[in-house]
Amino acid sequence: MIVENDGASTREESDPALAALAEQITRQLQSGEAVDIDDYARKYPAWAASIRGLLPTLHQLVELGQSVAASHQARRPGKDVSP
Predict the structure, then answer these.
(1) Those residues with Cβ within 8 angstroms of residue 61's Cβ, 6 or more apart along the chain or in another chain
(2) How many CA atoms lie within 13 Å of 69's alpha carbon, on the beta-carbon side?
(3) Whole-angstrom Cα distance, residue 70 to residue 7?
(4) Spatial distance between the Cα atoms of 8 and 78, rounded to a whole number of angstroms
(5) Phi first, then psi: what are they for 78, rounded to 5°?
(6) Integer Cα distance of 37 and 52 in angstroms
(7) Burial of 78 (0-12, 13-18, 19+ CB in 10 A)
(8) What is the C-alpha separation between 73 and 37, in angstroms, rounded?
(9) What gap in Å lies between CA 47 and CA 41, rounded to an integer?
(10) What's residue 57's pLDDT?
(11) What is the predicted pLDDT for the residue at 68?
(12) 76 φ, ψ (degrees, to nearest 5)
């Protein structure tokens, strides 16, 4: 993920290692596993602040994805969707 700031990006904003960590955390959240943010911070101290900042957003994105999937499942043809 590259976030631009006045036309420039920083190493932290575009580092593939941070993107990989975000993907790993997202997979954990999607599978219902608990994410120990302190453990990640100890393992990856260079990314601790970024990981802590991303976690709430990753939680929200996973919840949104689950909500959309449930909505699509409920609308499948032949499925009773009565209230």
Answers:
(1) 26
(2) 7
(3) 39
(4) 51
(5) 85, -5
(6) 7
(7) exposed
(8) 32
(9) 7
(10) 95
(11) 83
(12) -60, 140
pLDDT in tens, 29-82: 999 999 999 999 999 999 999 999 999 999 999 999 888 887 777 777 665 555
Per residue in 12-21, pLDDT tens?
A: 456 899 999 9
Q: How many CA atoms lie within 13 A of 38 on its CB side?
A: 0
Model pTM score: 0.66
How far apart are alpha carbons 56 and 60 in whole angstroms? Answer: 6
Q: How many CB atoms lie within 10 A of CB 23?
A: 11
pLDDT at 10 over 70: no
CB 59 within 8 A of CB 29: yes
Longest dimension (CA), the chain: 52
Give the Cα separation of 29 and 51 in Å (integer).
Answer: 14
